[in-house]
Fold this protein.
Amino acid sequence: MRASAPPSQFTPLIDTASSVILGKAQEIKLALVCLLADGHLLIEDLPGVGKTTLAHLLARLLGLQYSRIQFTSDMLPADVLGVSVYDRAGEQFRFHPGPVFAQLVLADEINRATPKAQSALLEAMEERQVTADGETRALPQPCFVIATQNPAHQIGTFPLPESQLDRFLMRIALGYPDQEQERILLAGEDRRAMVAALQPLLSGDALIQAQAHLDRIHAAPPIIDYCLHILNYTRASNRFRHGLSPRAGLGLLRAARAWAMIEGRNYVVPDDVQQVLPAVVPHRLAQDTEHSGRTDPAVATQILDAVPIP
């Protein structure tokens, strides 16, 4: 008999986060699912809608060491990774770790930086390590990158390459709050002060244990087939330049397991896959030559409508 994860382990965290980021319970839940699935999160939206606040809030509630990197057009890779400085007393070079050496790293406005600076995060995101001056150094565990980016049409942005996008398990958008929630926001306490006053509800060790539990969340053969059919649909469709990769399929299934865990189940149902697919899939698909740019998030609806539920 498989032990299920009790909802009470995560419900207080989601409720507390929802009291700070108003009216965005679904987006908060997806962000937590992304971290439980040991993935990196990309938040794409207009400035001022709470992207940075959400990242700081998650770090606070999960008890993670937090670091923020403000990406700019003149940033160099060493500004992210760190640099070796000569120590006269020791007569040797000493490595000074950069801000990437943290458990949760906020890469703020990542598409404001040049591709050279963006690529500094590639090894850190994929291998959880950094190679500098010929030496490889492990990053703290757990290790997450939450990146924010402004819409590509804004001035001074450099689009993320496909190799970088594929390293983000999920991409979400917060959007504007509804009128009632915004009224509460305007009349209430400053959000940054609220975050600073919060106490951790989990710890890094508890998060690692929850991640280890994911492998015990049962995905029956029909669920595996459902994910396979989704992958094959994108590969066979002439709407996309290329279909989803095996890494995307693994990420989709792991995210579905994390959603099931938050729901308090020890098994995956089709609805778990459907809940996470809009955040996992669209940013990995490029439209064919008759269109331009990345696919719209609404493409997830088309995929779910086209692939039958097992």
Summary: Strands lie at 41-44, 66-70, 82-87, 92-97, 104-108, 129-132, 135-138, 144-149, 170-172. DSSP finds 14 helices and nine strands in the chain. The chain has two domains: 8-210, 217-310. Residues 63 and 203 are 5 Å apart (CA to CA).
